[in-house]
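Sanity check. The docking grid for flavin mononucleotide depends on where the pocket ends up, so I'm generating a full predicted complex first rather than guessing from homology. Inputs follow.
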Amino acid sequence: MTEPLIIGAMVRTLGAYPSGWRHPGAHRDPATDADILRHIAREGEEAVLDYLFFGDWLATGPDLEFRDPYLLARIDPVSAVLFLAGVTSRIGLIATVNTTYGDPYTTARSLASLDVLTGGRAGINLVTGAEPRAAGNHGRDAHADNETRYDRAEEFVTALRRLWDSWDEDAWIADAERGVLIDPAGLRSADLHGAQIRVTGPLNVARPPQGRIPIVHAGTSPRSRALAATEADLALIAAPNIADAIATRAQLRTIAADAGRSPASLKVIAPVLPVVAETDAEAHRIVERLLALVPLAEGHQPARTAFPPNRTVDALADALGVAADDPLRAVAFDDQVAADDAARLGEGGAALIERVSRIAGLAVSGRRPLTWRHLVAAHAVPAAFVVGDAHLIADHFESWRDAGAADGFNVLSAFQPAQFEAFTRLAAPELRRRGLLAGDTDRDGATLRDRLRISSRVDA
Ligand SMILES: Cc1cc2nc3c(=O)[nH]c(=O)nc-3n(C[C@H](O)[C@H](O)[C@H](O)COP(=O)(O)O)c2cc1C
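Predicted complex below; grid placement will be based on this.
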């Protein structure tokens, strides 16, 4: 029988689509993040998803308001998972840690603590970071280059493993009668003297229930792929389409095999942004609304310098190669795209019109007309939407699994909580019916490792 997929939620409380926070009913106040986090965790747990995943970004600035608003201000990932440890009992909790700026001893300690507190539900996503402003927040002059970052990341993984291994499973004796608390022979130092990381150990938290906590890695460069394929249990990939995902997964598995590892022990996880509703038409209307809510360059105060420059009809026309004197450049955002306009936009324009039609159900001269606003917004803020009812969403998951494109998905929600609820309440039951989501509630007490179906790697 084919294995079910690994399915987790990539949690962004402000929504994964930049205009999601503007959708009616969407969560938009960081002061109430505790409520929304609790709500998302309960939803995810009831749908028996495998994990909740929290990314990280080590800087902020006003430029993020329009580009990636969810990065502006949010609860740090380790705090988020520790908070949720207390309100969940089954679901895995994965926090991102940046190896370029993080301290391995502190990281090993807080993740081991999470693992103990949750009975083995902790996971860690290691990233090396792509935000240059992070340097200034951590006393550095500049963000290190790719090679230096990945050299450190490799030492970081070694440090984590040695620290988690610094207590034998049976080192804690606690024999009150004999007065013996520990077996000193079961406690060893980490003894790492790397070029960038030095750590003595042992760790001051007893051995975590999972032994070695599952390691996730997210990145795109060749060094990132090497790290994921040799060290990670889960590799998070960027997958713009199925062909790309198939190629990336195959490459990761080849590197793993060349390194003497069983490729099956590496799970490749693709992102997906489903917009789910009871019917396809309803789901299309949600996307149409999200597109309409993308701020475009109209009535914008000039002082708001962080506004992205690509949100104009002119920018779209430039991208599509439309002549400088073409009357298209003078259209208003809410004008309909006429058939002869569409014909003048060339191949790029046709592809964009096809995409908007697929995600928002709008067509040139259609019953629900396509306007320039939809095209400019879809071009300026691209997203890998999969839009439709539960069957359509499940078809997407199934076709990717059957094609060998992914072992699982990180599910993003355009806005919270309604779109996450739509996924857990409409799509998840259909995924379970098709055997794509394990969803066996009888596995209470399963560790994250059990859920991910990865070997213990303790002796690897
Ligand atoms: C699916 C995915 C999720 C990622 N999540 C994060 C994140 O939460 N925080 C972060 O700093 N970087 C994140 N990254 C970025 C990577 O860490 C990496 O810095 C970036 O992709 C550049 O690639 P490279 O580090 O391999 O050069 C993510 C990348 C991917 C593909």
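Relevant for the grid: The mean pLDDT is 95.
Also worth noting: The radius of gyration is 24 Å.
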